[in-house]
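Reviewers of the previous submission asked for a worked example of the structure-prediction workflow described in the proposal, so we include one complete record here. The input consisted solely of the amino acid sequence. No template or homolog information was supplied to the procedure at any stage.
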Amino acid sequence: MRTQILFCLFFTLTFANAQNQITIPDTLNGTVFNLNLQNGTYQFYAGQNTQTMGVNGAILGPTLIVNKGDFIDITVNNHLEDTTTIHWHGMHVSAANDGGPHTTIAPGASWNPRFTVLDKAGTYWYHPHLHEKTNLHVSKGIAGFIIVRDSEEAALELPRTYGVDDFPLVIQTKTFDANKKIVVPSNADTVLIVNATIDAALNVPAQVVRLRLLNGSSQRNFNIGLSDNRTFYQIGSDGGLLSVPNAVERLRLTPGERAEILLDFSNMQGQTLSLMSYAAEFANGIYGATNPGMGMMMSLNNYNPNPMNGTNFPIMQFIVTEKIANAITEIPTTLATVSPIPESAAVITRNLSLTAASMGPNSLNGKFLINNASFDMDVINYTIPLDNVEIWSITNLSPIAHPFHIHDVQFFILDRNGRAPVAAEQGRKDVVLIHPMETVRFITKFADFADDPVPYMYHCHMLTHEDDGMMGQFKVVSTTNVVENKIDGNETIAVYPNPATSIINISVRQSRTKLKHYKLYDTRGRTVLEGDFSENSDLVIDLKNIASGIYILEFNSEKQRFIKKITKL
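From that input alone, the workflow returned the following structure tokens.
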């Protein structure tokens, strides 16, 4: 009864004023883009200015429309008063172009990533990724869509006229104080916005319409449905189109995740329909449920009271207008070619655990860890050989669900606690929600990019958790390229003999470089030997107990890592 009363009250308060026409982001097309990160003010509430951040404007950013195979050149100019980064979420680019926390842009500086678009047609996005400030910069407003087009998608009868029958919708929740200032961090996210619009409404034509949904919230999960419980059709997941439309009445969307859906508004001219989140259907242990932790006694500061937690609520309203010329009126029966990687192709399984740093009823208010460790900018958690096909098995031992995101690659979910994924999760993915006491396995291939000076990230996409250190990093390394034999900029270093029979010698020409630690990996990325150096000259690594084969030797000084392929005879 309490849930129904809260829902009715929230619905009445929200949709009594639900005539704020939604903002559709501008577009930038072509291959050369200039993005200006800037401070601004924006009126979420009429007559009241809120300090925001945006890209080429006061809030959010333009939608970048690119084609697969294009070589694009982006200049990001930081006009903020804070250092930041920009990450191309979901896109397959080199680590140097990825925009992770190592690739910072100082105030007044610019960054110029340049890369070929290798991704399939789909909906991606860009946002800041500065360590410990991702949540602040995203919550203040920096986020934008990336739409990739390709020939396979172009051959389908799909809505694709931007802002007419093809709409990008970023759904977010925020906290405002009494002066309408955005509060970060906060669990009291009582205000729902779509494309920076409170009480959002969108005019849609009476035909089949395509929505590109992005959960851009810091923490909240949504259970997408329509107010009349009609069927709609998912056609895409994070990394592009599915093989066939997925007919559903509910579609869960976790932070960082995207979905493309088709809604049929035919014969509805003059009517209205609401996009809903049926959060009352969430089980405990997910941010958005009645209880965010598995146990009813677990509390999360400022989580309640909140009319969105554990209730069904409207996200936005559709106002159906007349059909346009050349309207799409049918749902296609087939979509794109999707080729999952067979499990038999994997050469290694990596096991990761997600845990709370503290136990007990208050554990939700503490930090969360990956493999019992918090993020360290100076620690490479995994070194992965180029072209490795790997299974990542991730077990959530914490009391709350975590959206796990990995950079560089798209993956295919193999199973959840041994059960095959539902149809909504059978496409290419880069975010997956992992429930408490659940193990999710996915398979992926680390292709195309290796040996960059900066690593890729993997992390929880609840931005409060990420900022608190629920993140790790990996490097992809080539087993064929020889790295230049310099360390710390000007000192030569020798590794010999190579090939080796029983020992490897490491010699540094000058004594001021201090080598600290070494690891030896096989071609599957498994650590077969590691140790610490105690001296700085005539260093020896004993290979007597190592099988013959090709290995990757990694060692580091205080400033730099050195990677070299060696052969044991």
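Residues 521 and 527 are 5 Å apart (CA to CA). We consider this example representative of the routine output the project will generate in years two and three.
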